[in-house]
Amino acid sequence: MRTRLFILLLSIGFNSLIAQEILVKNIRTDEPLENVAIFNQHMDKSTITDENGVASIGNFNKTDTLFFQHPSYERYKASYTSVVMSGIIMLERKNILIPEFVITASKYRENKREVPYLIDVISPQRIEYSPLLNSAELLTSSGNIFVQKSQAGGGSPVLRGFEANKVLLVIDGVRMNNAIYRSGHLQNSLTIDNAILERVEVIYGPTSVMYGSDALGGVVHYITKNPELGDSIQPTNIGGTAYIQGASATSSIKSHLDFNLGFKKLAFLSSITHSSYGDIQIGYRRNPFYGDWGKQLDYVERINGKDSLVKNSNSHRIRGTGFNQFDLLQKIRYQPGSYADLVLNIQYSTSSDINRQDQLNDRSENGSPEFSEWYYGPQNRLLAMGKISLSKPNDFYDNFETTIAYQEVEESRNTRGFRDDTLYSQVEKVKIISANIDFHKELTSRTTVGYGFELNLNDVTSEATANHIVTKATWPSLTRYPDEGTQTVTSGAYVSYKARLHPKILTSVGIRYQYYSLKSKYSDLFGDLPEIFRDVEIENQAITSSLSFIINQTRSFNWNVIFATGFRSPNLDDLAKIRLYSGKLTLPNESLEPEYAYNAEVGFSKTFDGYIRINGNYFFTYLTNAITRVPYVSPNGDSTIYFQGKEAYTYQNANSSEALLHGFSLNMISDLNSNISFKGTLNYTYGRNLSEKAPLSHIPPVFGRTEISYQIKKLVFEAYLIYAGWKNIDDMVDTGEDKIDEGTVFGFPGWYTINLNTIYNLTDYLTIQLAAENVTDNFYKPFASGVPAPGINLVGTLRVKF
User: CA angle, 752 as apex, 748 and 753 as ends, to 5°?
Assistant: First the structure.
């Protein structure tokens, strides 16, 4: 009887074991997990968890090893017996967010998590998949940069309320900002070919310790692709990319070809890009309140030798906004050994004439246009540089990099008044020689030091002519800058120190000294000016510093705190430009001193389960010695001067203002699984001129971007929303930078666009991309822009890799 009872109980227990159910849960949130695949080592038995995270494993053998797999979780394995004994399996979420490395903050490669500054990285995939047609527009894909456009061929980035010569542009480690970068809107980022970019790194806030003058709002660092060498498996590396892209709203065609030829120690990379842009077609869907705002009702055309105002047959097409651009790049790379890398880099960019649309919009009191012609001549940029990188540790450095560069930049302005037969042309040419030497040394496992030196020389020539378009007569005219030339010298040195004070605290400290001098002279053509204004010579110096902390409160949560100073040395455009406009004459001022920014910010970063990251930054910047234009009164009390046959009121740039800026940025990025990702940004900046108790110029409205991406096998689909709030007239300044005349009587209205982008990889070598921008065909004009944005825009790209 006892034997029968024992056998019965054993049978019940065995049957219970066979019918065993288990529960699968998230180890951090304790939530049940659905659709977790469970299979054995032979993969001949399997099951899946239900909506309650439960699965039956009765069909497996006691000798099986069970595997638990889900796309969003780490794979887990255990013996059948141990699974049955526990009854609950806890899975760890995959850390899908891969750590990024950056070079812009400290000039050497470091983990982004160890950089206190807010940094955006526009990745190679983002650059390749973006339907945006130039390097200025590409910056908007970060969601944290506002871009202004005075004309179709332009794009002036705004970082934390700073723009133009208060934002530093860098290409492959070489600063682009030169002596004639003005305080108004700048379009020089257009000369960078986005088709050959490897990545873009944007660092926000004053970074003068590492980069010197101009980096008050931050640094935009464009990094081009490098030639690829061969290896032991593939001694000869041959490949390249070609694509053609068309856009409907601008009738544009862009074509590109790059080719790589690499051997074991020597490699070549060649690139050519041609872009042709037509007139802009603006959106038809508009608020009735706008009336005809932004439409082009008429335009100037020369008929029978006379300027005539002609009605535009399509007021939604902005005539004269088209232009062409041509870009070349050639790189040669030589790697004699694993410790050395040498790169020769040559870049050239040129454009056709580009109309200044905001000036052509201007009307005189009688309603006629002020200008028949106002255009920039070809914008030419040449860069030739050599870079040597050494990574053979010694007593002085672990990594050493030196860059010697030569640049030539040419810009011109051409203006002709309505029914005036004289065309005035001003041409500026800048030649720049620069040298940078940067060292990085790891002192101990917890401390590193970086130090370096910089030298930058600018030589500026300025020419001007007046041309009668009928008689073809030509005579000298007033130049924009000193017509007998300008020379500037900038030199500086810095040192930075990083230390792990505690396993949870990382600190960095840095200091920089910089010297700046300028000499310029006007000829007798400016004889109306007193002698004191015709020769300008200055010398100044600046010391800046920074202190930052990163506090790793937990593995997934950290704080960062930054205290930093930044400066901008007054350049030629500030110091010596003579400009007569609307009866107001701006005179040189050789007593200008550097502008200083004192910045404090706090930020945080929180990662949830390895697949959602939220970070935010609040910044506070106090700007002193700010350069603004103020009325000038001579020692004898005169506020006017007789110049070029007319009495003109006199003005000067002066260190007369103090300003306050503060704001925040919020970012969320989530790789929900290996297929779906999400990103959202929100930015707000407030700026006030404390000296004049008035708004500060260049301050964008609240803006941001929200996007979701789905990728499966050969298909990528993106949907994204770009938006900006109202910029009210009471928050704008009437000094030209905010372009009050280009908005409505109440300011610039808020706007949004809905955009779609699809990429399909037909093969490993052939990709088709179709995008629809502004699919609702909204009319809008971004704050301070002189030209409306395109309406619905269909973009098609055919890309071949070989």
Answer: 130
Residue 519 to residue 538: CA distance in whole angstroms: 7
* Cα dist from 676 to 97, 124, 146, 612, 671, whole Å: 12, 18, 26, 12, 6
Cα–Cα distance for residue pair 282/129, rounded to 1 Å: 24
pTM of the model: 0.89
Q: Are strands 747-748 and 727-728 parallel, antiparallel or unpaired?
A: antiparallel
Cβ-based neighbours of 570, under 8 Å, separated by 6 or more: 538, 540, 592, 593, 594, 595, 627, 653
Number of other CB atoms surrounding residue 260 within 10 Å: 22
Distances (CA, A) of 310 to 273, 305, 306, 307, 446: 35, 14, 12, 9, 71
Compute the Cα dihedral for 72, 74, 80, 82 and give only its sign.
negative
| pLDDT given for residue 539 in this prediction | 93
Which residue type sits at 220? V
CB atoms within 10 A of CB 799: 19
Interatomic CA distance for residues 705 and 752, integer angstroms: 9
pLDDT value at residue 231: 87
Distance CA 293, CA 272 (A): 39
- Specify the pairing of strand 119-122 against strand 197-204: antiparallel
| Cβ–Cβ < 8 Å for 49, 36 | yes
State the distance between the two ends of the chain, measured CA to CA, in whole angstroms. 81
Per DSSP (E only), the strands in 208-353 are 218-224, 237-247, 252-262, 266-277, 280-281, 298-303, 306-311, 317-318, 323-337, 340-351
CA-CA distance, 374 to 370, in Å (whole number)?
Answer: 10
Q: How many helices (H) and strands (E) in the chain?
A: 7, 52
772 and 756 Cβ atoms separated by less than 8 Å:
yes
| Of 103, 65, 97, nearest in space to 81 by CA | 65
Predicted confidence at residue 358, as pLDDT, reads 87
Phi, psi of 451 (to 5 degrees): -155, 160
List all residues 6 or more positions away from 197 whose beta carbon is below 8 Å from its beta carbon.
Answer: 127, 135, 138, 222, 223, 224, 225
CA dist list (Å): 602 to 4, 119, 326, 347: 75, 14, 43, 39
What is the block-wise mean pLDDT of the chain (802 residues), using blocks of 10 residues? 47 48 86 91 91 91 91 86 91 71 85 89 89 87 92 88 94 96 88 95 93 94 96 91 96 97 97 96 94 94 94 95 96 95 98 93 89 96 97 94 98 95 97 97 95 97 96 93 95 97 94 96 84 88 95 88 94 88 85 94 88 92 91 89 86 90 95 84 96 92 96 92 96 88 95 97 94 97 94 97 93
Structure tokens at 389: 């990188």
Three-state helix/strand/coil letters over 652-684: EEEEEEEEEEEEEEEEEEEECCCCEEEEEEEEE
Beta carbons of 554 and 605 less than 8 angstroms apart: no
Dig out the tokens for 195 from the structure.
């088709």
CA 722 to CA 702: how far, in whole Å? Answer: 11
Q: CA nearest 575: which of 67, 234, 165? A: 165
Three-class SS state of 141: helix
